[in-house]
């Protein structure tokens, strides 16, 4: 499985460690909150809202260098707009992977 990384964050920060840490701190704060809202809406079968949650989360997936994960998120978001939860397990595996990564950095 593809692993989260800081390549994109490093390129954005241009060597500015304080800015890099700010970006990481924002992700570490927002990601768990957005993930919880995703699961809450999924449990309530509010697929339009779930698609919106996936849309927000896919940007963090991209920032963490998960190119294949981003593609899964795009496809899953489109599926959800049609009421289809195909790719749910793959997407949630990406979320778990990110959660574990964020706990380590």
UniProtKB/TrEMBL annotation:
<feature type="modified residue" description="Phosphohistidine">
    <location>
        <position position="55"/>
    </location>
</feature>
<keyword id="KW-0597">Phosphoprotein</keyword>
<protein>
    <submittedName>
        <fullName>Hpt domain-containing protein</fullName>
    </submittedName>
</protein>
<dbReference type="InterPro" id="IPR008207">
    <property type="entry name" value="Sig_transdc_His_kin_Hpt_dom"/>
</dbReference>
<feature type="domain" description="HPt">
    <location>
        <begin position="16"/>
        <end position="105"/>
    </location>
</feature>
<dbReference type="InterPro" id="IPR036641">
    <property type="entry name" value="HPT_dom_sf"/>
</dbReference>
